[in-house]
Design a protein that fits this description.
With about 270 residues, the chain is an alpha+beta fold. It contains eight helices and twelve strands. It is about 25% helix and about 25% strand. The strands form two sheets. The chain has a six-stranded mixed β-sheet. The protein has a six-stranded mixed β-sheet with strand order 5-6-7-8-10-9. The two termini are about 25 Å apart.
């Protein structure tokens, strides 16, 4: 048994689980920016990725193992170089569920779940509607279908941690210019209402559970020096089932670490 796996098993025996979520905007691009070296230093047990834009056969999987993750699972989009999610783990999951069973979404590689005992961790990449009306309609259909999917799933797996790029800012505090973006996809009233309804259906925004200050973002456009000026959006979340509220220990955003137009975020739970 490798030392990294033994250490992670000991952590889980002690009932601490740290999960990192990261929209890498192309895993091969992120790796070229020393993302794996960064990841190896974060002491995470599980990593949820979005927008990997690759298939497993396009990656040197030994690099993942060298970073401390001997178990890795992918749900790539059928369209090459597009979308896709992944989960890396130091401990082998009890079960992996690829997709949500809805063909248009599974074609785009948007959902992956790993079960660890009673806790299920999901990596999810919600569609963007910024390219126009067709994709915005697709996004709204997804949101309705995803809520139904999760409502059914949590009857069998009630302890859910749903990490990913939701492509929605919930409140004005989550976006640098709420007035200027009020009619833009990602901050539309109906999208924000969906986030609110999703939380009310039994979830906690783990970052806001601990942090209430403004100017905390997870995505910045590449244009006009937005990141340097911190003109960002908080559209990435680790949503945690309310029945795990007492288990929440810490949540962080890694805004200073640059491997993508997004940054990583994490949630840590004490499960005993």
């Amino acid at each position: 048994m490798e030392n990294c796996e033994l250490f992670s098993i000991l952590r889980l025996v002690l009932s601490t689980m740290k999960i990192i979520s990261y929209n890498v905007n192309g895993i091969r691009s992120a790796i070229s920016k020393n993302w794996l070296e960064w990841l190896a230093l974060q002491n995470a047990d599980v990593v949820c990725l979005q927008e990997i834009k690759a298939t497993a056969d396009q990656l040197n999987l030994s690099l993942l193992e060298a970073a401390g993750f001997p178990y890795y699972y992918f749900h790539s989009a059928q369209k090459k170089g597009y979308s896709g999610v992944a989960i890396f783990s130091k401990v082998k999951p009890d079960h992996i569920e690829v997709g949500c069973g809805i063909e248009p979404y599974d074609y785009e590689g948007r959902v992956l779940r790993a079960d660890f005992g009673e806790v299920s961790v999901m990596s999810v990449y919600h569609p963007s509607g910024s390219s126009g009306e067709v994709r915005q309609a697709f996004k709204m259909g997804w949101l309705a279908d995803f809520q139904k999917y999760i409502d059914a799933l949590k009857t069998k797996h009630p302890k859910l941690i749903i990490c990913g790029d939701y492509n929605i800012c919930h409140q004005a505090i989550d976006i640098h210019d709420p007035k200027g973006n009020a009619k833009n996809s990602g901050f539309l009233p109906e999208e924000r209402q969906w986030i609110g309804n999703f939380l009310e259906s039994g979830f906690i925004d783990s970052f806001r559970h601990f942090h209430h200050e403004p100017h905390q973002y997870t995505w910045w456009t590449f244009r006009a020096g937005a990141r340097g000026n911190n003109k960002g959006w908080r559209i990435d979340y680790c949503m945690v089932s309310k029945n795990l509220e007492e288990n929440l220990k810490e949540a962080k955003i890694y805004a200073e670490d640059v491997h993508s137009d997004h940054c990583g975020l994490s949630v840590t739970l004490k499960l005993a």
